[in-house]
Amino acid sequence: MTQQPQPADQPIASSAENPLLRSWKDFLKRLAQNKSAMFGGILIVLLLVISWVGPFLVPYGENEQEVVNKLAPPSADHWFGTDNFGRDVFSRLIHGMSITFYIGFMSVAIGGTVGTFFGIVSGYYGGKVDTVFMRIIDVFLAFPGIILALAIVAALGPGLNNVVYAVAIGAFPTFARIARGSTLTVKKLEYIDAVKALGANDLRIIFKHILPNIMSPIIVQTTLYIATAVLSAAGLSFLGLGTQPPDPEWGAMLNDGRNYMFNAPHLTYAPGLAIILVVLAFNIFGDGLRDALDPKLKK
User: Fold this and answer.
1) From CA 120, how far away is CA 178, in angstroms rounded?
2) Which of 57, 55, 89 is nearest to 70 (CA)?
3) Are 138 and 189 in contact (CB under 8 A)?
4) Which residues face 65 on adjacent strands?
5) Cis preceding-peptide flag for 5 (omega within 30 of 0)
6) 7 in a domain, yes or no?
7) Taking 80 as the threshold, does the pLDDT of residue 294 lie above it?
8) pLDDT value for 8
9) Across-strand partners of 82?
10) DSSP of 116-162, one letter per residue?
11) 276 in a domain, yes or no?
C-alpha cells in the first residue's frame, strides 16, 4: 500500500519550546505586568544614562565657583541654585551621581560575591564547615549595618574606597544567609543526587547546578541592597567619614547645606530628593523582580 505524502504546509512534528527560553519569557511577562516595577526599572536606566553622559553636558564644572553668586536661589542660569562657595548645585548633583552609583554597585558586587560564596559552601558541606561559617556571619549580624560601617571606616580612615569596603562588609552576612538557605533547599533535590551518582565533583555541582538555581533571591537582594548601600554611603559622608570634599557626594552635600537650611534650603532639598529618588527606584524595581521571580506566583 502506497503511503500518501503529507501536504507541504502541514508540519510533521511540533518542536517543544526550550524550557529556559519559556522561563525567561514568563519572567519578562510577569515583570512587564508590574507597572511600578517597570517604572522603577526605566527610572534606574535613565539615572544610569544621566550619570554617564551628564557630566559632559552640564554647563558648569563640579568645583567651578562664582564668588559673587553665593547661595543664589534656583534660577534659569542655576536650576538648583548655588552653594556657599558659588558652585552650581545641579552640576554637582550630576557629577555626584556617578560616585553614588559606584559605591552602590561596587559594594554590593564585592559583598554579594563573597557572601554568596560563603553561603553556598556553608549550606552545601554542612557539619563543622556550616557551624564555623555561620558563627562568623552571626558576629557580623550582631551589629547594625550603619554601626558596623562606621566602625570599619573609623578604622580604615575616610575615603571613597574605604566606604565601598565598609558597605560591602555590611552586605556580606545578608547575602550569605540567603545563599545558605537556598542551597540547603536545592541540594536535597533528586537531580543533585543524580549528578553526584554520575561522578560530578563538588565544584561542578556548586557552580553549574546549585548556583544557577539560587540566583533568583540573590538578584532580588542585590537590587534591594543597592538602595541600602546608597543610604549607608550618604550617611557616612554626612558624618564626615565618607567621600571627602571637594568631591560632590550627595551625603557630603547634605552636610554642607545643613548650616544654611533657613536662608538657602535648596542646598539640602536637592541632594535629599536625589537620594530619595535613587533609593525609591531600586526598591520599587526590586519588589517587582521579587514578584516576577517568585515560583509560587507562577501558574
Assistant:
1) 9
2) 89
3) no
4) 87
5) no
6) no
7) no
8) 47
9) 88
10) HHHHHHHHHH-HHHHHHHHHHHHHHHTS-HHHHHHHHHHHH-SSHHH
11) yes
Distance CA 76, CA 69 (A): 14
CATH number at residue 186: 1.10.3720.10
Sign of CA dihedral 154, 157, 163, 165: negative
Rounded to the nearest 10 degrees, the angle between the axes of helix 89-125 and helix 160-186 is: 40
Asked which of 29-38, 152-161, 251-260, 262-271 is least confident by mean pLDDT, the reply is 29-38
Number of structural domains the chain divides into: 1
What pLDDT, on a 0 to 100 scale, did the predictor assign at position 13?
41
In sequence order, the 6+-apart residues with CB closer than 8 A to the CB of 17 are none
> pLDDT value at position 97?
93
Decide if 46 is inside a domain. Answer: no
pTM, whole model, 2 decimals? 0.84
At 206, which amino acid appears?
Answer: I
Distances (CA, A) of 273 to 24, 74, 268, 279, 280: 35, 15, 8, 10, 10
